[in-house]
Amino acid sequence: MADALAAMLSFPPDNVDKLSPKDYDRAMHAHMKIMDKTTQWTKPVDKQNILDLLNPTLNSIPYLYALIEHIKAAGKDKTRLDALLDRALIFFALFDPVQVRYVGASWVMVLGWVMDRLRAPAIPNLTPISTAILRLDPTAGTFTTNHLYFLRACLSSAVPSQALPILDKNIYAFPTIPPKNVPEDLLSEEHELSNAFITTKNGFTDKVQPDLILEYYLLGAHVYIGQRNWTRARLFLESVILTPSQQHATSALQVEAYKKWVLVGLLAEGKSYPLPRTHDTVVMKSIRLVAKPYDVLAEAFEKREWRKYQAEMDVGAQVWHDDGNLRMVKEAGDALLKYRVIDLQKTFAALPVSRVASHMGFTADATLHMVTDMIRYGALNASITPGSTSGEAVLRFHSTDVGPSSTVAQEGELAAQTKRIEDLVTFVRDADRRLQLTKEYVEHLKRVKRQGTGPDGDLADQMDLTWDAPVPGQDDGDEDIMAA
């Protein structure tokens, strides 16, 4: 057993920092061959548990293997399983992410076991799962089924906010099959993007089907709706709606996403979002045909016809209930009243509450109470000058000019947007590189080469991409076109 322990501790070598990626990869494969032949994972060494003699950071692979064998040997012994859960949590906080790239299936096996164990308590804490996923891939940008399983676990355990560390990371790639006849990237290399080492063959994910992707974005939208993060909710819902399909097939998940997308627009902006420019017109027609009651609600909302909205809400109560959207529909009805008050700001600087009440169709007392709540909760930038009666009180709208604090917020948002654009450029560059390795792209280049650069060649190659700056003192051609 001592010899087996020595083999487990033999990697990494003392000069690991000086190894090239190629040498590291060769040494790792040699080490794994030895580990695959080892069978003495649960036997004590000098009366000590082998897990106590291994460092989860330095000896990540043997520690993981030993952990799996101890879990199998524990059977249904709750005491031993609880102790192993503690060790697994330590492992997920400390493992070497480069070493683990070589044992994806084993890593996922323990991840699933830990997830099941963490869901058992009355108040579950699933944060170690997101910690593990982000330690392996700090961007969490390559979609795996672990993303979805973790999100499902958070929702079923009634702790949706614990999914945010993963949901807040944008997905930029999906696991793919490495092209044939193209040398694969070494797992030990410093990869700019995680889809270089998270592929369909390395065990980090089950097969990714389109319906799993749709489910991930739809469930993620539910979390953001609960958080009142309308921007992310809209993004996730549109990711579902815009998912391409063969022969314009429409998914029930797309219909559900559209229904919530309509309601989110009413709550966030007081009107329906404009249809995404890249939508499939055939698919969208099918979606809207099924979701017509929601478009009718939106039409009444945008016209600020509160009583018509209430009537439609009552008539379709069973529809909203069956869709799981009854609460959002009622909330949108409350928001409609608020937007009717906010719309007055476009015309008036101040007006008596009695005038507001007349516009709303409510009593002055009810209107004063509603407007006071809107001001208190930040929904309306205004103040109320008291009067002898509720109707004589004056509602004064305040300027919406940008102040110092909002300027700082805008600068922060601009910096964040710049960072997102920089990341997107990196993702697109990587996607272009991988596209050029595909068989289809190589065949396309062969066709272009045969056809030449004439009229029958690739139109993109024939485009004039130069730009001549306008000569000072002369009219700009674009301005002439716009003037016409």
TrEMBL record:
Source superkingdom: Eukaryota
Any one annotated GO CC term: COP9 signalosome
Keywords: Cytoplasm
Biased composition (Acidic residues): 475-484
Protein name (database record): COP9 signalosome complex subunit 3 N-terminal helical repeats domain-containing protein
PANTHER family: 26S PROTEASOME NON-ATPASE REGULATORY SUBUNIT 3/COP9 SIGNALOSOME COMPLEX SUBUNIT 3 (PTHR10758), COP9 SIGNALOSOME COMPLEX SUBUNIT 3 (PTHR10758:SF1)
Gene Ontology biological-process annotations: ubiquitin-dependent protein catabolic process
A Pfam family this chain is assigned to: COP9_hel_rpt
Region listing for Disordered, in residue ranges: 449-484
Residue intervals of the COP9 signalosome complex subunit 3 N-terminal helical repeats domain: 42-283
